[in-house]
Amino acid sequence: MPAQLLDGNALARQIRSELTTEVAEFIENNGVVPALAAVLVGGDPASQVYVRNKRRDCEEVGINSTLHRLPETTTQDELLNLIARLNRDDAIHGILVQLPLPPQIDSRAILEAVSPNKDVDAFHPENVGLVVQGQPRFLPCTPAAVQQILVRNNVSIAGQHVVVVGRSDIVGKPLAIMLAQRGPGADATVTLCHSRTPDLGAFTRQADILVAAIGKPKFITADMIRPGATVIDVGINRTDAGLVGDVDFEAILPVASRITPVPGGIGPLTRVMLLVNTLTAARQLEM
Ligand code: NDP
After folding, report:
1. Is 31-116's fold the same as 141-267's?
2. Does ligand 1 lie within 6 Å of residue 163's CB atom?
3. Residue among 210, 224, 234, 244 whose CB has most ligand 1 atoms within 8 A, to mutate
4. Where would I find the Tetrahydrofolate dehydrogenase/cyclohydrolase NAD(P)-binding domain in this sequence (predicted)?
């Protein structure tokens, strides 16, 4: 029997509909509309599309969004000034600085300048630290999307062996930490693999749940999957054949028990998590 598809689009729709109700309740109780400020520096076409989609998502669930467009030549001080202004603005609950930033700007300094209370991407060191300590203020969006697709499809995580391939600061590393925490949606035994892991297949074949966050099209092949495993494909690779994940979907379909498609898997859910974090920020700031 082919693997069950874990449908990220359907789950994203469901969570957006839950959020629409929660946002309306929040507005009724507080007299304030949750608001996200998006900051876009320069004209990178992919970044423009991402920001446009994120703002459309906000609109759909009733969150206000404002866009701050700055020219490619913006200096670090100019951007820091804008962030300081947004940090002070009581009408703004979440701040999103779209990456990548132009080379004259130090991204780390910018991400550290965003108030941790408005840091809906959860990139600020304080928020990373809280995640590591198991006391998150916000969960990073892509790892949260992976956790939600497992939890909401009743895939057991506790006691399972999760193998994460990829150790980036925005995906693999925080995900490995989150799934190894004590508590619901976690309690896994986690192995974190990367480009210096010898004989990767020897690790991936032990996975009850395999997460690929590598950035190489179809890198994970069918012989690397334990029959019956759950396979989560975070990868988004633009190829001549269109968007392709990090796993060889067609070949793995008959081997795995569950698998996420690309597109339509983790991508749409990642977008929803930004909305979840914006509502969380609004709740915390308006308490
Ligand atoms: P990075 O490039 O930051 O990290 C890639 C990781 O993969 C690194 O840890 C790297 O190891 C590891 N890796 C590379 N080659 C190999 C190899 N041959 N064997 C084992 N491990 C390897 O990528 P990101 O984490 O930012 O993104 C990963 C993928 O997920 C990309 O396709 C990206 O587009 C996608 N993505 C999707 C999102 C979504 O919303 N669905 C959101 C964010 C990312 P090392 O550390 O040793 O270099």
Report:
1. yes
2. no
3. 234
4. 140-284
Taking the chain, what is the end-to-end CA distance rounded to the nearest angstrom? 50
Q: Topology of domain 31-116, per CATH? A: Rossmann fold (3.40.50)
Contacts of 236 (CB under 8 A, 6+ apart): 243, 245, 262, 263, 267
3-state per-residue secondary structure call for 252-286:
HCCCCCEECCCCCCHHHHHHHHHHHHHHHHHHHHC
Which structure tokens are listed for 223?
């012989």
Active-site residue, from 57, 119, 121, 233: 121
ipTM of the complex: 0.99
Residues contacting 45, CB < 8 A, separation 6+: none
CATH topology for 141-267? Rossmann fold (3.40.50)
In this predicted structure, what is the pLDDT of residue 1?
Answer: 85
Which amino acid appears at position 10 of this protein?
A: A
Question: Cβ of 98: how many Cβ atoms within 10 Å?
Answer: 19
Model pTM above 0.95: yes
**Residue-range domain boundaries for the chain:** 31-116, 141-267
What whole-number distance in Å separates Cα of residue 20 and Cα of residue 57? 11
- Taking only Cα atoms into account, the Rg of the chain, rounded to an integer number of angstroms, comes to 19
More confident of the two residues 241 and 136 = 136
